[in-house]
Every structure is written in C-alpha cells, then in structure tokens.
Design brief:
It is a single chain. This protein has two domains: 187 residues, Rossmann fold (3-Layer(aba) Sandwich); 155 residues, Glycogen Phosphorylase B (Rossmann fold, 3-Layer(aba) Sandwich). By secondary structure, it is of the alpha/beta class. α4 crosses α5 and α5 packs parallel to α6. 48% of the residues lie in helices and 16% in strands. The longest helix is centred in the C-terminal third of the chain and has 22 residues.
C-alpha cells in the first residue's frame, strides 16, 4: 500500500519538519513501508525540501500595517489568487495523489484558519482524492478555532470524507466534537507525533554544552495569535532572564529558535542589545534536534522545542502564549511546568530546578495511543 502524507513540511519553522519526520517514521513502521511526505501547500516532497527553503534567502522587515485587514478579506484575497494559479499549485499534489493508494493528512497544527490558507489547500487534496476514489485519513492534527465560513465548509468536507480522525490533544477533540457531533464516532484523541523524537533521532548524540537553553518566539507571532502582551515587555523578559542566569547564577545559558525568520530577527534584536551565546539557526530538523540536545534544560515557547525535549527526558518549562502548549503539557501531566512573562526570575529558577519530567508510563501510554490510532488505517482498509 502506497501512502502520501500531507503536512507543513516546507515551513521555515523547522519544528514542522520534526513533525513530518516523526509522522513518516510512524507510518512506515506501523502501516506501510511505502510512504512519502509532501508539503500541504506546495506539494513538494520532504527529501527535496530539506534545507533548500533557506538558499539565497535575505532577511527583510515588513512595515506594520496602520490598520489590520479583516480576516475574511484576507481569506477572499488568498482564495482569488489561489484560483488564478491553481493549475500550477496543484500539479505536485496531483502527482502525489495519483501515485498513492491512501492519503494521510497530518500531523501538525493544520485545522486552523490562517486566512484560509490551510483550508483552501487541503480542499484541493480532498477534492482530487475523492475524484480518484482514494481513502483519506486525518491523523495527529491540532485544532484552533474560530473558523471562517470558508474554512468551516472546507474542513467539514475533509472530516466528512475521512475514514478515521485523530487529533493530538484533548482540547482539539473537544473543539471538533462540539462543532461536529456527527463525526464523533470516528474521532479520537492521541498525542503529537513529536513524542517519538527519542526514537526517530536516536543517532544524534546528546552533547549538553549549556545548562539552560532559551528558545524564543517573535512578539509578532504572539500578537498574531491574539496575545495582549506588549512587545517591549517580551523583549525585557528574555533579556532579564538571560542576564539573571548568566550573571547572578553563573549558569551557562544560550538562545536559539526553531528557524522561523521572524524569530531569528527578534533574536538579532536581542543580540544587538546584550552579549549572548546563540546557537546556529536550524535549517533542517536534525539541526534543530542538535540544538535541543545541546542544552540540559530548556525554557521555551515553541511546542516543537518543548515536546522533543520532553521526549528526550529533559527538564522543560513552557512559557504561556498559546493554548496549544498548555493543552499538550496538561495531557502529559506536566502542566505545572508552565510559566508566564509575569513570573519572578527567582521563581522561574526554582521551577527549572524542580521541573517535572514526563513519566515513562505516561510517555509509553501516549505512544501506544498514537500507534493504536494508526492501526485503524489497516483495520479500515481490510473491512
């Protein structure tokens, strides 16, 4: 059985490539050895993507808009442009679907309404897969609402035509169950595939250089997600935290990112203000894992820094900014490891010393739930 996976593997946030690697590993091990992974937007194959997105790239800073554009207008604008270039955009996806027996959409935070971009591109895949009588499965995806009418229409079509659906946390399941009761019978909650990082990247040695790693997100990303925290407060938080560990506690500390362009620009801003240790910008998933393994403990905002580190039994504090991080921490019974931008520095220090690690029992249970969800693919195909 040939399987085509579609997720955000071409994202410049390399954490999304970690998701792709783990999803590819899982399907090859538990469903079929004949599996390929493609980007949900471009249709490019994962192995052709690795590192290439960064070639000939030059940073640029866009001037902020005076007024935000309503989401519905952004969605309609993207939909119009997508229709103009649809034949060109969908070509790679058509080839991938034609060469597969089964379509797997996941893992990752795909069921979100970012100006309709994921919904519109996923709909291309669904429509063509239906026309070719290909089975569709949705696996290990994250959900965030609200959705526009356009996104709701397309995501509902995806769920309707999927033979089985798994989401990566209990909150995502609650959101889908409340919105679409008719799909409850084929919906299950498992875990994010990155819980398998300790299995997937076993050949990358643990080489702790720094006692604490700080993985940051640009304030612009927080604002986009609805945060009310002022950018200058976020900047001050990270600079004070770094100085606290470096100067007051004589703890070796470093900064790094998941490779997002805006995150790297924010780190540039910090580096222009204070002297810091900075890990190289990761261009591939392996490079991100190397950075994470360079740190004994981590304080991070990106889910796919936190979760790989938890998978590798490191002490991890998550900084509150997006519900998805808190929900994953709660599902792994490490919700006490969440901190906020308002917490005192000494409190954070105590927190990292006493951080709770994911128990082997909980990690094993999370992995088993994912595996059982994937086994449904074989069960459904043999009915």
């Amino acid at each position: 059985m040939k399987i085509a996976i579609f997720n955000a593997c071409e994202s410049l946030n390399v954490g999304d490539q970690v998701i792709s690697d783990c999803t590819l590993y899982l399907l090859k091990k538990y469903v079929s050895e004949n599996v390929n992974c493609y980007d949900v937007l471009s249709g490019k194959e994962l192995n052709a993507i690795r590192g290439n997105a960064f070639k000939n790239f030059h940073y640029s800073v866009k001037k902020p808009r005076k007024r935000s554009v309503p989401k519905i207008l952004s969605t309609l604008k993207y939909l119009y442009k997508h229709k103009l270039f649809k034949k060109e955009i969908i070509k790679n996806k058509i080839d991938a679907i034609d060469n597969a027996d089964l379509i797997f959409i996941g893992g990752g935070h795909l069921l979100i309404d970012t100006a309709g971009i994921f919904a519109i591109n996923i709909n291309d895949i669904v429509d063509y897969a239906i026309s070719k009588n290909k089975d569709i499965f949705v696996g290990m995806v994250g959900v965030r609402m609200p959705w526009s009418l356009i996104a709701t229409f397309y995501f509902k079509k995806l769920l309707k035509h999927s033979k089985y659906i798994t989401v990566r946390d209990t909150s995502s399941r609650e959101l889908l169950s409340n919105k679409f009761e008719e799909f409850e019978y084929k919906l299950n909650s498992t875990m994010d595939p990155a819980i398998f990082v300790d299995d997937v990247y076993i050949n990358i040695p643990d080489r702790s250089i720094y006692q604490i790693g700080l993985c940051i997100i640009s304030p612009s990303e927080l604002i986009r997600a609805g945060s009310k925290i002022r950018p200058e407060d976020i900047l001050n938080f990270w600079m004070k935290l770094y100085a606290f560990f470096d100067k007051e506690k004589s703890i070796s500390v470093c900064f790094f990112t998941n490779g997002s362009l805006q995150d790297e620009l924010f780190l540039d801003e910090i580096e222009n203000l204070i002297k810091i240790n900075r890990l190289p910008k990761p261009r591939t998933s392996d490079e991100l894992i190397i950075n994470i393994k360079s740190c004994e403990s981590l304080i991070a905002q990106r889910l796919h820094t936190c979760l790989p580190a938890l998978s590798m039994n490191k002490r991890v504090l998550g900084v509150k900014w997006d519900d998805k991080l808190e929900h994953i921490f709660d599902d792994l019974n490490v919700g006490v490891n969440m901190i906020s931008f308002n917490d005192e520095l000494n409190f954070i220090h105590e927190k990292i010393i006493n951080a709770v690690m994911v128990s082997e029992l909980k990690k094993s249970s999370a992995k088993t739930n994912i595996i059982n969800g994937l086994k449904k693919i074989n069960e459904e195909n043999h009915q």
